[in-house]
Amino acid sequence: MKHIIQVLKFEYLGCVKSKSFIISTVIFMLLIVLMAFLPGIIMSATSSENAEMPDGEKPVIAVCDKAYNGSKTVKDMFEKNYPFNSIELTDESAEIIKDKINSGDYIFAVMINEPLSVTYFTKNNSLLSVESQMVQSCIKEIYQSLSFEKLGIAPDVSMKIINAETKINTVTTGTDQTKNYLSTYILMMMLYMAIIMYGSMVSQSVVSEKNSRAMEMLITCAKPSHLMFGKVIGSGLAGLTQMVLILSTALVSLKAVPLDKLPKEIRDMLAFPVDTVLYALLFFLLAFFIYSFLLGAFASLASRSEDLNTVITPVMLMLIAAFMVVIIPMNAGTLDGTVMQVCSYIPFTAPLAMFIRVAMSDVTAIEIIISIVVQLASIYIFGMLAAAIYRVGVLLYGNAPKPAEIVKLLKEQHITNKKIKAELKNNRS
Amino acid sequence: MELNIKEIYKSFGEKEVLKNITFSAKSGSAHGLLGRNGAGKTTTIRIVMGVFYPDNGRVLIDGRQIDRSRIRIGYMPEERGLYPKKQITEQLVYLAMLRGMSGSEARKACEKWLERMGMSEYKNKKLETLSKGNQQKIQLAATLMCRPEIIILDEPFSGLDPVNAMLLKDVIKEMIDDGAVVLFSSHQMNYVEEFCDSISILNSGNIVLDGRIAEIKRSYPRDRIAISSAQSDKIAPFIIQKMSGSIISADKSKENENTIVVRLKDPAFKNRLFKELSDNDFDIDEFRVCEPSLNDIFVQYTEAGI
Description:
A: D-Maltodextrin-Binding Protein, domain 2; B: alpha/beta; four-stranded antiparallel beta sheet
């Protein structure tokens, strides 16, 4: 136990004090603050721009009406849709309109050729521009309004009919899956990234010890299982430290941002309930341990850092597969379907699946406990297995051994261990 | 305390690396493990350290199975093993604590050993910024910091300049005098001769020679006599003439022209030779039996192998 704590402390401090850790944490925290405040900054910047624009200098939109015989509705409707622009009715030819757009007199122009057919003049057309769609809907509204008028229905009445909206009041008896979707999604991505990041840190650390032969000194001082557990727990705590720092920055900056301007639905989606965040941290630790032990064990089979990626690919693929398997039901909304139920108890998928279900669906306490117990048990088994592989792996140089060879080595080691233990027991008695 | 290596066998796959390795080393003395590259020295050491397990055979301390958790072993691997990217003090303290020292003890020992090695100024540097020889000294500090009862040094002198080699020699001698068991592997025979009371020569995984150096040397036929004298020009023809029936040859030494090496037909003729020389009143500086050097012995026993 003493050894585990010493190794843990060494690994934890080594990680937390490293430049890369400090820099990446600071960058993440700054990014989060920036992301939280950016929308507000942009909004205030754009609104002040519009407010400062003097009335006479509103950008001009030219409308050339050839279909509605100068109906007043045309101008009204454009003015309603473009409150920050001045609308100019014109009967200039297409050539003149083009010139005026090029010279900057008009920002764009619409020529209504037939009731439902227009030519849209613009200087630059970009793929993402929504301008033409806005023009389309504006023309549609004009058409609808005038058509209703012909039938003897007043424009204000017709607009109400056209733009009728349903008020929906959802009553959820379980957990509202839409409510936490965004926050869960963000936490889930974080979880996944963190597992990959810290897991590969563990494997990197194992292979560098092997490469520098520090391993040889270490295994003569401490038991491989102590080294392995100390290393993995130390790196896990370093990961937890970083996640807590990042998440608390997120929580604080979300508090500081005036969210009340946003619609309630979006606010709900962005809510990070404290219990969900705590569950995220718990499942991060569980998932991290499951994968890190495997990564550590596999990494000990590589003899050089160059071989590391090849050797740990199977574990990484497993992690990606686990992520895919749970993210699909999450998007489909089948959180309590068979797939997710089964995944909640398979060690590789359990932390991710259970986290999503806890955050977005209704899970009984028993289910959570069983899943956590399964995960803890598999962590112990993987840990011991990893320590054994590490013990035989650290001294294998050259090509990574085949699975059958590893099993053979593990068996041999098991027998020798037994023999040595028996002899030591004899010694003492 | 006595360290016994008893009938050790080890194979890697099909290849049998060690065959029936047996030797022992006692407290307060050093045992040299000699052998050509690939003879099995490092594998033997790794088995003693518990890095590898033997297929057969045992490592004993005073006749009992070694319990590595209860005995302090200092190990300096040939390939060196420290963290290149970590601060020196940090890793030395860490390793000492893993070996059972408390934090404050470890820090004190670290200070002391860095000072002893003349490395105090580097204590906050990263290991990789040091020269090879200095890294070696740090490695030695790491090995000796916990006052080990058994010290295993695999090629400790490689890469050290003469001054540092001297420092290392002093330190190791001090540890031997303090009663440590030292197991020493090297190719540099002069160092082995200087430290070790006994040696084992390994060849292709077999022990081909084992014993105390002095006894091994004495076991060689004592039929070569070196005579140093300023009159060597006269002595050589004199011996050939006077003792032609008892000697094989009497030639000037290649290394020193004042020395004549006489090969006797029988070591028993030594006294007659001495008498002849003294009766004729030659001015003799030195008259001694030529013992084989460790180098000669090593070459003789390992030449055929591998």
